[in-house]
Model the fold of this input.
Amino acid sequence: MPLKFRNKTLLAKVETTYGTDAAPTGAANAIQVMDLSITPQDGETVTHDFVQPDLGARAQIPVNTHVSLEFSVSVAGSGTAGTAPGYGVLLRGCGMAEVIAASASTQASPATGVGTPTGTFTYTAGTAFTGSVLRTVTLTCTTGGGSGVAAFTVSAPQAGAHTAYNQTGVVMTDATPLTLVNGATIVPTVGTSFVSGDSYTILLQPAHVAYQPVGSGEESLTLYFNLAGNRHKLLGARGSVACEFQTGQLPRFRFKFLGLYVGPDAASQPSVDLAPFKQPVPVNNANTPDFSLHGYAGVMKSLTLDLGVQVHLRDFVNSALVAITDRQGSGNVTLEAPAIGTKDFFADAINATLGPLAFVHGVTAGNIVGIDAPKVQVLKPRYGDDQGIAVLEMDLVPTPDAGNDELVITVM
Done:
């Protein structure tokens, strides 16, 4: 009987010990993938170039043999904010740490001062935050004084599907709840009196799972690829990921993995549970409520960001492993060209200006994915024509800010 090419499954599980088979199962570790391709015996060859008294080719001996695997996964949430998505294991295999915040939270006291404010205050969290995306609230003093006298403007910019918030004349009084945004309150205690102009920020977070690059201690995966009963294993696998958002299309994470070679075996096609993978929504105005680059909320057509993880097989005496040796992020964006007086990306490019990129896809809690890059460089801005509308295409270089934070993926 011929093997049916469409009968394919992929399983993935984090290894406890590097290179030791983690034995993923279809019930717990199945991955819903698209565009899957595998090179079961990747690597190089050396010629056994011995002398003999006739013509003809000499045997090629495989060296540095490994398995290469590429595929894409739809970008969607887990269905429940604060629960890791089904593809979370893959991001962990790309040198990213998984941090789960199972419930909403308010930034721990004290607030973050903007500049060097005079006044001081502490607080405890009151009513829980009910927003579905990260929000930063700014408190700006408009009337100086102490408890019961000092008044503030409480504001927050638009974030995802949430509109901008602005409330003036909010008096801060000890032991009295002060409303922030999306239902969140704090109960303050004033220390040093405030002066007009003092400003502070407080970060509010929904239940979420964040993925952020690490510089050491990267995890590894065991991957099982099964084609109609032919099973290929990748042990000690590590890889890289790229995010692709194209308007009018379903968003994707594209993965490339490299793993230690294990000879294939015969194994029944596993029964898989793909329930952790939720249906994605297309990239468009209704489903993709937030995009800004260098502080400019432009009309975006497409965005690609590649984490650029560099992986290498190191098959040496007494050691065989797939090592992550560096990250060199890259990307590109296409947006409607702004008037120079509104936003001059040409000046940003020539001056090597670094600025933030923020992107939110999805509007329903449990199916929202945010991409944040704190210091992105734009390169080679160039004009294009899209249905008679001038667009600006630019290359992107995401760079770290505090370190190991050049690209953060948050699932909410």
Observations:
- The first helix runs from residue 26 to 29.
- The longest strand covers residues 369-386.
- The chain has a mean pLDDT of 96.
